[in-house]
Amino acid sequence: MVYPWQQFQWQKVQQQKSGAKLPHALLMIGPQGLGKLDFALNLANSLLCSTPDTQGHACGECVTCKLVDAGTHPDLYILQGEERGKTIKVDDVRQLSAKLNLTSQYGGYQVALIVDAHDMNINASNSLLKTLEEPPVDTVLILVSSNPEKLPVTVRSRCQVINFNIPETQMALSWLEDQNIQQAGALLNLAHGAPLLAVGLQQDNLLEHHKQLINALLGVAKNQSVIEQAEQLHKLPLGYLLNWLFDWVQDLIKLHQCGDPVKLVHIAQQSELKQLVTRSSLPGLYDYLDQLIKNKQLQSIPLNTQLLWEDLLLSWYKTLKRA
Length: 323
Ligand SMILES: [Zn+2]
Description:
Shape: elongated
Bound molecules: zinc ion
Number of domains: 2
Oligomer: single chain
CATH superfamily of the largest domain: P-loop containing nucleotide triphosphate hydrolases
Number of strands: 5
Number of helices: 15
CATH architecture of the largest domain: 3-Layer(aba) Sandwich
Order of helices and strands: HEHHEHEHEHEHHHHHHHHH
Helix content: 40-55%
Strand content: 5-15%
Structural class: alpha/beta
């Protein structure tokens, strides 16, 4: 599916394709949760399909479309780390380049898709550079990245960049409502406006976990026991909670710096946040943010999460002046 917020990008690449001006390398960038990979797969499918429609969408019926669906099309290569976040190694890039140097089996394009291209290590990037500089004919490389600043400039500069941006709120909300997503507004705020992240947050009871975090923060602010609140939080998904706490502190900083009105992630708790602003100082909030950033960096290491939450909640308590 090409999402409503991707129509402009879709039309642009299709125009390039029909004018035989499609670049041999495209770099799709933008925040997570906008469906860049779906777009890339659709584009790959569109390039390989023998009978795409007038908008360039693959027919879904021809032999090549069936092969793409089955993941067995011999002219489509997908390169990614063994797991999300794992390095893409030089040998894998070399293998890809060798395959691209063979002729297309179906006589059309050969398409290579590099998922999370920023996970290529420096040797892998350097190896890809050769293919980017001298691409085989009718080859299209599609690199997808939400962290393009991690890619070497030499790689970036050899690709045509396609930007994906957070859609207008109304467009995102109406799409979420079409997907029957409940509490779309709250989810979209927590997802910083990225619709597919909002869909992800609907799963696994995450909205309920978010509520537990906010209750713990407000409880500690009202002198409730740090240890008891930490017991409520320590079994919940740490990564999400740390991100939300980060957003919570940033909301307070925004209110300090910009006053009202300002776009908050925690729009539903804005009256509580406004009260907490009067009990906090900017330097204190920045110190707390520093502590959070350190904890976010440490989260891949096994931790005693009960102690971690006691520590974080106690610091939160100390950040606030007594009510
Ligand atoms: Zn087709």
